Every structure is written in C-alpha cells, then in structure tokens.
Amino acid sequence: MNPYRVLPIFTPEKVEEYRNRNFYELSPHIYALADEAYRSLRDQDKDQCILITGESGAGKTEASKLVMSYVAAVCGKGQEVNKVKEQLLQSNPVLEAFGNAKTVRNDNSSRFGKYMDIEFDFKGDPLGGVISNYLLEKSRVVKQPRGERNFHIFYQLLSGASDDTLKKLKLDRDFSKYNYLSLDSAVVNGLDDAANFRTVKNAMQIVGFMEDEVQSVLELVAAVLKLGDIEFKPESRCNGTDESRIKDKNDLKEMCELLGIEQSVLERAFSYRTVEARLEKVSTTLNVAQAYYARDALAKNLYSRLFSWLVTRINESIKAQTKARHKVMGVLDIYGFEIFEDGDNSFEQFIINYCNEKLQQIFIELTLREEQEEYVREGIEWTNIEYFNNAIICDLIENHQNGILAMLDEECLRPGTVTDETFLDKLNTICAEHQHFESRLSKNSKFLTDHSLPHNCFRIQHYAGKVLYRVEGFVDKNNDLLYRDLSQAMYKANHSLIKQLFPEGNPAKVNLKRPPTAGFQFRASVGTLMKNLQTKNPNYIRCIKPNDKKASHIFTDSLVCHQVRYLGLMENVRVRRAGYAFRQAYEPCLERYKMLCKRTWPHWRGPAREGVEVLMADLPVPAEEFSFGRSKIFIRNPRTLFFLEERRRQCLQDLATLIQKIYRGWKCRSHFLLLKKSQIVVAAWYRRYAQEKKYQKIKSATTVVQSYTRGWQARKLLRELKYQKRCEEAVTTISAFWHGTQARRELRQLKEDARNRHAVSVIWAGWQGTKVRREYRKFFRANAGKKIYDFTIQRIMQKYFLGLKSTMPSMSPIDKSWPARPYRFLDGVHRELPRIFHLWRCKKYRSQFTEEKKAVYEEKLEASEIFKDKKALYPSSVSQPFKGDYLEISKNPKYQKLNSAVDEKVLLADVVNKINRANGKGTARIFLLTKKSVVLADQKTGQVKASVPLPDLASVSVSTQSDGFFALRLKEGSASAVKGDFLLSSEHLIEIITKLHRTGATAADSEQLNVDISDEFLVQFKHDKVCVKFIQGAPKNGNSVSCKRKNNRLLEVSVPTTA
Ligand SMILES: Nc1ncnc2c1ncn2[C@@H]1O[C@H](COP(=O)(O)OP(=O)(O)O)[C@@H](O)[C@H]1O
Ligand SMILES: [Mg+2]
Question: Which of 87, 437, 541, 788 has its CA 20 to 30 A from that of 495?
Fold first, then answer.
C-alpha cells in the first residue's frame, strides 16, 4: 500500500533484520520478498522474476527501487561488485529523467515499461544487467493532458543547466518560450528539477556515458524543444493547392545548427512529401496541418529513438563482462493500469491497459489456474475455487484474426481512405458480440441508448474496470508515420547520434516496405516478455493505492476494495489457504533433502517417490503437513519447509565439516607422507654424513693408536738397542777395567820386582859403600871432616845470599816483608839482616829530604814524643801538616800593623780562643809565636793585647782528651805573671804546643818548657787559682767542647767522647 510519505521501514537496520530470514517469519515487507527471491536464486539456482503490478501511482517504481537496493545491500562486496551495483542503481535516475513525467495520478509516473534482468554469478554477486523498455508514451512529447507535464528532462535541462550550457544549446531558461512544454504544471511541488539535473548528469557519468555522448543527448533534447517552436503559415499556390511556409526561420536555423543539418534540406522536408512506389517517385506539397503533423512526428520519433538509444547505451555499460553461466533476477516495473475518468483514454492507455491485462493473465495462469490444475493433475484432493480469468479480454485485444490490435493494423494497412471512424466501424462489426466490448454503434443494441458511451468511442470491460477509449488518433498513433523525407533529412545531419537514430534515412538502404505498426511491435514485445517471465519463478508485489489524491493518511475503502478484487487477491488467498505452500517434483526434492535420512543418503536406489516417502516418514513431520502427488510432493505450511531447510542447512554444515575433515585428513596425510619421505631422505643423508664422520674419527683414532703403538715399539726397540749397546759398553768397560786391573797388577808386580831389584842394588851399593869406607877409612886425615863442613857451610851461605839478591823486598821504609829463611841455623842472620836493611833503606830515604821538610818532620817527631799515647787529640793531628802561619800575617795587609809591631820572625800565627774565667766563654785572639815571645792580639784591630817573652813561660797544661784547651803558666815573679796565666783553646793545639816546646828548647837563655798532661790543673788568674777540670761529656751536647764555670774555683770543660 502506497503510504505517500516516507516510512522508517526502509533503513539499513531493516535490511539486516530481514536478511537471511524465512519468508513468513517476519511481517510482510518488500525486503522479505526480495530476500526470498535472492536466496532462492543464489541457493536453489532458480531464476527469479519480481512482478510489480498496480495502478499508476500505486508505488511500483518505488517498490522496484527498494528491491534493487535491498539486493545491492545483501549481495557480495568488493571493488568490482560495487561498481556493477552502482551502475545498475544509477541507471534508474537516467531512465526516470527521460521516461517519467508528472501525471494527474503520479508526480513521477513511468511513461514506459521497464523490465530489468540482473545477472548474478554462482556466489550471488551481481555481474551486470539487461534492461528492456516497452513503448514509451511518446505522444507526451508534443502534447500533454491538462494538469500533466512533459518528460522531466526538459524541465531539468532548462532549470539545472549552466548558462554556458544553455547558450551552447541555444536555449532559454524560460519554459514559456517552448510550445511543447505545458505551462500549467511546469513546476511540481517537492520536485527540484535543477538538483535532479545534476543527479542525472552524475548518474550518466557513473553509468559510463562519455562527455560528448552526454552533450549529444542534451543537443537532441534541445532540438526537440526547438522543433516545437517551428510554426507554419498557410500559403495558397496559384494551382490551387495549399502550401505551408515556416513562419519564423530563426528557430529552424538554430535547430539545424544544433544538429548539423542543412537548413534548406529540413525546410524542404517540412514542405514536401515524397512517395516512392516501385519505380515512381511522387512529390506532393504539405499543407499547414500536414506540416505540423510532420513536425510533431519528427519530434516524437526523435525523442523516443533517443530514449531507446539511451537504454541500449546503458545496457552496453551494465552488461555482464563474463560469458560464464549466470543466474537472473528480473524486475518488471511496467506502467500501471490507467483510466481517465472523463473518457479521454487514447491509444496509449489502450496499450498500457492491454499490457496490464497480460500481466494479470500471467498471474492467473501461474497462481490460480495452474496451481489448481496441478492439484487435480497430481491427484490431490481439491475443491475448485472459482475466479475470473481475463484470458477472454486478452483475446479480444490480441487475437490474430479479430483482435482489436489486428483490426487496427488491418485498417492502417488497407488502401483507400482510412480514418479512426472507419476503424471504429470495423470494431463495431467484428467485436459486437464480444461480452467485454461495448460500443454505441455496435450491433449489440444493448448500448444504443447508453448515453455514457459517446459515438466516437468504444468501451472495454477490463479486469480492473471499464475503460472508455476515444478512437481519435488510434490509426495515426498505430501507424507512427514519419515521412521518409524527414528521416532522410535527419540521416544527412552532421551529428553522429542523429545519424544513428535514423538508419532508415540512408538512401542506400531504402526500404519500401512499411515499418511494423506500433500495436504490432508492442504485442510482439509483450509476447516475448510473457514467455520470458514464464520461464522464471514469479514473485509478486501488488501495489495498492489508498486514495486518488496522492495524499497520506487517506484510505478510500471502495478504491482499495476495488483493487483487491480485480487483482484477484481474494481468490489468490483462498487458493493459498486451501492449497500447499510448497511443491516440488520427487527427483529434485529427494536430491535436495536426501541427506536428512540415513536410508536415502547418499544414494537412493529405488524410484524417487518412494525415496521421498521414506524420507518424510523418517522426519518428525506430522502426516497432514504433506501430500504425495503423482510426480510431486506438496507441503502445506511454510513452517514445514523451513524446518526441512533448517535441517538441511545443519546437515550440509555437518557434511561440509565431514568433507572438510576428510579433505584435511587427506591433506595432512599427504603432507605427512611427504614429510616422512623427506625425513627418510634427510635421515639417509644424515646417516651417511654421520657414518662418514664416525669413520673419519675412527680412522684418525686408529692412526693415533697406530702411531702410539709404532712409537712404543720403536722405543722398545730403541731401548733394547740401547741396552745392548750399554751391555756392549759395559763389557768393554769391564774388560777395560779387567785389562787395567790385569795391567796394573802386572805393573805392580813389575814395580815390585823393580823395587826389589832396586833395593837389592841399594843394599848392594850401601854394602859396597860401607865396604869402600871401611876399606878407605885408614886413608882419611883427622881434620878433613871440619874442612868438608866449612866448605859445605860456605856453599850454603853463598847460595843463600845469591838467592837473597833476587828476593830482596822494596825500598819503601814501611815495607815490612822479608824472604823466608831456608835453614834454621841462619836464624840470627835472618833477624839481623832485615834490621840492617831497614836502617839502610831509611837512611837512603832520609837523604832525599830538604832542610824545611826535615824541620817539619823534626817537629812532627817532637810532637810525637810529647803527645803520643798521652793526649787523645794527637792521632788526628798526625796527618795534618804544620803550616805555621795560618793567617799569612806578612802578606795580609790587614795585619801589617801587627806584623810591624813584632820584630822577630813569626813562627806561628793563628786565631785562638781566650777563655774567660768568669763564664768560660771564649774570645777570639790572634796568637803569634816568635823565637822570643808569645803575642796575643785583638782579632779585628790587630792591636797587641799581651806579649809574653818565652823565658817567662813556666809550663803548658793540656788535658788528656781530644779538646784544644791549653793553659800557659807563667813563672811566678816574672813581669808577665802579673796578669795571670792564659787559658786558651785552639784547633792547632798540637802544633802550637810542639812549636812552643821546640822554640823554648832552642832559645839559649831558657830551659825546656814543661808540658803537663793532666785532666785537672790549676790556672792562676790574677789573684786566685782556678781549677780546670775535664770531664767526658755526653754526646748530646754536640761535638763542640763546652766550658762552664762551676764555681769560683772550678771551670768544667766537657769533652765529647770520640767514637
Ligand atoms: N514505499 C513508499 N513510501 C513512500 N512513498 C511512496 C512509496 N511508494 C510510492 N510512494 C509515493 O508514491 C509516488 C508514486 O509511486 P510510483 O512508484 O512512482 O508509482 P507507480 O510507478 O506505480 O506509478 C511516489 O512518487 C512516492 O511519492
Ligand atoms: Mg512507475
């Protein structure tokens, strides 16, 4: 039922809901039907057709679009598939733009019949499609009934095309400029022509139209519009014939430019008509009416041929690319039953209604008659259901002898004057008796007084109601005449599309036969369509119109009732209710369901019927659910069928699993065998390799063992050889020893013998000597012994001294060596001789000395006499030469004054420390010694502090230790003694004392100076005597000698022990 408003039941969710669901499972829906058809096609390999019927405006076209969109949504996906789908879907807007128009019943009424075959591959993916079109209502191009419009494309082009395009097409946007466009309903509510134009262009592009093809199509559309504007005016010729002239040639010119036609050619075609018959060619002029007729005929032909070309062109694009076998789903959307209430029905309505009549026929055939007959044929118990069979109406129209179409053709082809009236007359005579034909003038007097039936009309009682047809135009429309001059003019056009559309205009292919009439063509094509539909499994969508106002929410009971009734739905329901939902021949049924029973699976050897019986008995289906016909099984409820299908599906799944299992098993096994084979090869190779390795290992091991063994054997051999050699050597040695021993024994023996012999000779000699001496004793003198003794001694001494000459020691006085004595009796000599030699050697040594050196040694000798072994300081002084003048007093200008003060020669000059008795500290003083006196002087100034003549000196006291302290003791009562003794210390103590001692000795007028060596002595200071005591100091005091005053009478000098 057309809701006349958008309902939310055509959404993708709904698609999913209905997808793969059983037909009666959900509430009725176009999707349910489409799904059922699609699945039967895909799964049961049955070609399907979907027949959409209903009155004009009942929603057939919408329904067909829904079917296609559903199929597109559920079938396979993929780039190629999507392209095919898109092209199939987009063919719709193109065809609708050119073939649909607004009518009083429907704003988008299809003015052509369309049957579309969609082709699928075995998987159910769309491959392509074929569209067949049926008789476009072309009269609409030139004239539209009141309240209706021309085809959409004209309005779309004018409102949607760009200015540029319009200019190219030489068009104006204003609809009112064009005669062919009706103005009263040019704008339709809810229809956006401009937007639709864009959609159409886009769709053409998707479908695969080339840019220039689109352009050509638009040029033709423009040409049709232009054609409508060509107007003619009458012109009387002098010969009395009427002629026509084109009023305003501008439109003609523009149109010719558009199509590339020479203006004069077209102009002539509009003015003359050439009739060719056999060898004759007659040209007659056209009057104004004929010219208009010619113009409109051209416009209609141009447009309808363009439409057919579009369909062909779309088919070219959408046709399946593969030649593989395919399944087909046909969708038939044909113009709906149409009645104009005011009786304005014409040839087109007649044709349309005839077509619907045929569709109803096919419905009756397949569902009502065929089904019922089948029950009877199959021997199923059946009570016949009565229904109206419209075959009689079809026969009225299409009967080859006396059908209305046949008579119309006959009338058109008949020579002589033919008008619509003659045609009606003919009908009146021939069809008068037909119970569905009504005419005022028919012989059936029943209608003579029927005023609802005008004279120029006839009425047919269609299955859907009575329709009053006005005969006017029937003949012309059926003839569909286009003057040859016009088609030839079109063929001459310099426009490839136009040339294609008018092939009969080709002068080379002049065909004098009349072209088939429109009625004939239509009947033929409907005939093929019906045959085609009969081969397919039909699915019906019966569209019902709720009201005549194209309005939602209005439900006109009578209208709906009427439709339901004439569509035969009641009978249909009754048959369905009483009958069986499903039937199938035994063979295919068994084939399809044999897997449901163990006894029929996999092969049933008996007749198919028995197989099915066994099968059904085996299934848990109640017996009343099915009947067995002669050749078919009948199943009452869809439920049962679904049950079977479900079981089958499960079974197939299991079987598929089984096949899969076996295949997998086989695959795994062959894989395993391959693996095993490979494994053996690998193992063989590996074993070979391993054995080779092992062999090599053993081989090398063997070599090693062998080499060891050989080594061992060789060593053994070597050992034996060595042993042998040693044995040989030992033998040699032993034998050598033995020989040696033997030899030595022999030698000893020989020696013994020799000794014995010698002893004998000695004893013999002794004996001889004794004998001689005894003999000669009487001849020796008494003193001869002494002489021999002296001589011997002399000889020995001589030898000793001569030997001594060569063994004399060196001349150095310190050399103490002396050759050893040879004889003991020379002991005394040996003692005396070294002493003499030493003295002589010393004398020789001394004789080399000069006077000074001699003096020095004398001094040193004297020092030794005084101090040796008495004072510890002495040994260190031995190696120091006595220099005397340490200050070089005569040379140093500093001491010039002092030097001059001492008139004697200075023997010694040195710096000494004068010890202060008060504190024991020393003061540096220059100490001078001359032959006569001792002088003490200040060290810095050189001023003489004291001068003591040597005779005044009584003695000198020093300690036994290694210090340099000495005290000069003055003679009591002498002049110098007044000041007291001097306690001094010097580094050259030994030298000073020695020199003092010597000088004192040499001085004639004084006696020897005493040197006291003691660790305690008294020193006279002015009035009192102070004892100076020397103690051994601890080394901690340092190496220096320190003098400390202990008390008035004691000065203690601590001397560090010398290590
Ligand atoms: N299923 C639907 N839902 C909403 N509107 C519908 C539906 N079917 C039809 N119509 C409305 O009815 C109009 C006529 O439908 P259409 O299919 O062209 O009729 P038909 O082809 O039978 O002459 C559409 O233009 C649309 O407005
Ligand atoms: Mg339609």
Answer: 87
Structure tokens at 324: 């593989």
Separation of CA 240 from chain center: 95
Beta carbons of 540 and 500 less than 8 angstroms apart:
no
Q: Which residues of 550-563 are buried (b: 16+ CB within 10 A; e: fewer)?
A: beeeeeeeebeebb
- In DSSP terms, 1013 is beta-bridged to 958
Establish whether residue 113 lines the binding site of ligand 1, counting it when its CB lies within 6 angstroms of any ligand atom. no
Q: What is the pLDDT of residue 292?
A: 92
State how far the alpha carbon of 670 is from the alpha carbons of 665, 677, 684, in Å: 8, 10, 21
- The per-residue pLDDT for 1035 is 62
Site to substitute for ligand 1 among 62, 108, 335, 563, most atoms within 8 A of C-beta: 62
Say how far apart CA 433 and CA 527 lie, in whole Å: 26
Distance CA 245, CA 268 (A): 10
Secondary structure string (H, E, C) spanning 537-573: EEEEEEECCCCCCCCCCCCCHHHHHHHHHHCCHHHHH
| Burial class, 410, CB count within 10 angstroms (exposed 0-12 / middle 13-18 / buried 19+) | middle
Which DSSP state fits 1058?
P
| Whole-number Cα distances in Å, 533 to 127, 333, 387, 856 | 20, 13, 22, 172
pTM of the model: 0.62
Ligand nearest to the CA of 64: 1
- 8 A C-beta contact, residue 63 and residue 102: no
Q: Is the CB of 563 under 6 A from ligand 1?
A: no
Residue type, 860: K
Annotated catalytic residue, options 40, 53, 56, 304: 56
Distance CA(1051)–CA(255), nearest Å, equals 168
φ, ψ (nearest 5 deg) of residue 526: -65, -40
Atom 17 (ligand 1) nearest CA: 59
List the one residue out of 537, 607, 590, 584 whose CA is nearest residue 378.
584
CA distance 426 to 420: 10
The bound ligand whose nearest atom lies closest to the alpha carbon of 55 is 1
Q: Where do we find the tokens 């065809």?
A: 95
Task: Work out which ligand 1 atom sits closest to the CA atom of 30.
Answer: 1
* CB 6 near ligand 1, within 6 Å: yes
Centre of ligand 2 from the C-alpha of residue 54, in Å: 9
Instruction: For residue 557, give the amino acid letter.
Output: D
pLDDT at residue 366, as a whole number? 81
Angle at 900 between CA 898 and CA 903, to 5 degrees: 110
| Helix/strand/coil percent split, the chain, to 5 | 55, 15, 30
Q: What are phi and psi of 914, to 5 degrees?
A: -90, 120
| Residue 566: predicted pLDDT | 84
113 labelled catalytic: no
Q: 502-525 in b/e burial notation, b at 16+ Cβ within 10 A? A: beebeeeeeeeeeeebbbbebbeb
Give pLDDT, residue 819.
84
Question: Would you state the pLDDT for residue 47?
Answer: 92
Distance CA 269, CA 661 (A): 79
* Count of CB atoms situated within 10 Å of the CB of 1053: 22
- Residue at 953: amino acid letter: L
Quick one: pLDDT at residue 1002? 66
Low-confidence ranges of the chain (pLDDT < 50): 1059
Per-residue confidence (pLDDT) for residue 1039, from 0 to 100? 61
What does the DSSP 8-state code read for residue 884?
S
- Amino acid type, 866: I
Q: Which ligand is nearest to the CA of 336?
A: 1
Residue 1036 is given by DSSP the state G
pLDDT for res 20: 85
Rounded CA gap, 938 and 320, in Å? 153
Its sign, for the CA torsion 59, 64, 69, 70, is positive
State the DSSP H helix or E strand holding residue 924, giving kind and residue range, or none if neither.
strand 922-930
The pLDDT assigned to 116 comes to 94
Q: What's the length of the chain?
A: 1059
Q: What is the pLDDT of residue 545?
A: 93
pLDDT of residue 15: 94
